[in-house]
Amino acid sequence: MAIHIKKLGASRSYRESNGEFLCDGSKLLYDAVNCGAEITTVLSASSVPFPLPPETRLVYASKDLINSVSPLLNAQDIVFVCKKPSFTCFEYNSGTYILLDYMQDPGNVGSVIRSANALGISGVILTGSCADPYNPKTIRASMGAIFRQKIVCMGIAGLKELKENGIRFIGAALDEGCRDVRDVNLKGSIIAIGSEGRGLSAEVLDLCDEKVTIPIIPECESLNAAVSAAIIMWESVRRQSAIHNVG
């Protein structure tokens, strides 16, 4: 069991082949229980302060053992294993989606998932060599949103099919001719955000009906990718009534 848990934390291919992922901490465990996640195993160095699903296996272990299987620095007293959720297919429902293109930093991907969930974004689409949404660092950065937010990985062929079906793509870029994001209606579109180093790939840029930019002072070169995504997602819902009492 310990070897299995350690491999889940260390290897994306192992997670994908087993359909499971590793999480840590009682707060994440509480979120997973409340969201109805399928929790297979809990490894804990202390008592769990809330009921677990009856089908979940609870194993008490030393803190040293937990430290040895966790891939994270400063491992908490609890690590646990969940089954990956079943929503692997994309079904467009006229909502607003965020598309991450080659965003390889797990912390950034987790932060975008967290912001998307907080702002009522319909789904997060990952394309290119994005960080694994089920990387333990991504999960920790999502602050529990990993259990609530719809996430799907999609290749360029799938994105082209959406485009052919009339779905509008908007890309965040720094090119000349980009419109101020405040002047563009983002509702009901797929909004693409690239990595900080390379921006959007040529394949995704080719899909974009329009390109937008966030105005910043000239002395600043760019914004962090996750910050840019959060600003644009906020702008996409700013005029909508779905978000109440923010702030």
How would you characterize the overall build of this protein?
Helix content is 32%, strand content 20%. α1 (2-10) crosses α2 (12-18), α5 (106-118) packs parallel to α6 (136-142) and α5 (106-118) runs parallel beside α9 (225-237). The chain folds into two domains: 2-83, 2-Layer Sandwich (60s Ribosomal Protein L30, Chain: A); 97-237, Alpha/beta knot. With 247 residues, it is of the alpha/beta class. It is elongated and about 60 Å long. It has nine helices and eleven strands. The chain starts with a helix and ends in a 10-residue tail after the last helix.
Protein structure class: alpha/beta
**CATH homologous superfamily grouping of the largest domain:** SPOUT methyltransferase, trefoil knot domain
The first-level CATH class name of the largest domain: Alpha Beta
Mind describing the biggest β-sheet? 7 strands, parallel
Summarize the structure.
The chain is α/β, with parallel strands linked by helices and 247 residues long. The chain has helices spanning 2-10, 12-18, 26-34, 63-69, 106-118, 136-142, 156-164, 202-207, 225-237; strands at residues 20-24, 39-44, 57-60, 78-83, 97-101, 123-127, 151-153, 169-172, 179-180, 190-194, 210-213. It folds into 2 domains: 2-83, Ribosomal protein L30/S12 (60s Ribosomal Protein L30, Chain: A); 97-237, Alpha/beta knot (3-Layer(aba) Sandwich), CATH 3.40.1280.10.
SSE map:
Layout (H helix, E strand, L loop, with lengths): L1 H9 L1 H7 L1 E5 L1 H9 L4 E6 L12 E4 L2 H7 L8 E6 L13 E5 L4 H13 L4 E5 L8 H7 L8 E3 L2 H9 L4 E4 L6 E2 L9 E5 L7 H6 L2 E4 L11 H13 L10
Parallel strand pairs: 2-3, 5-6, 5-10, 6-7, 8-10, 8-11, 9-11
Antiparallel strand pairs: 1-4, 2-4
Helix pairs in contact: 1-2, 5-6, 5-9
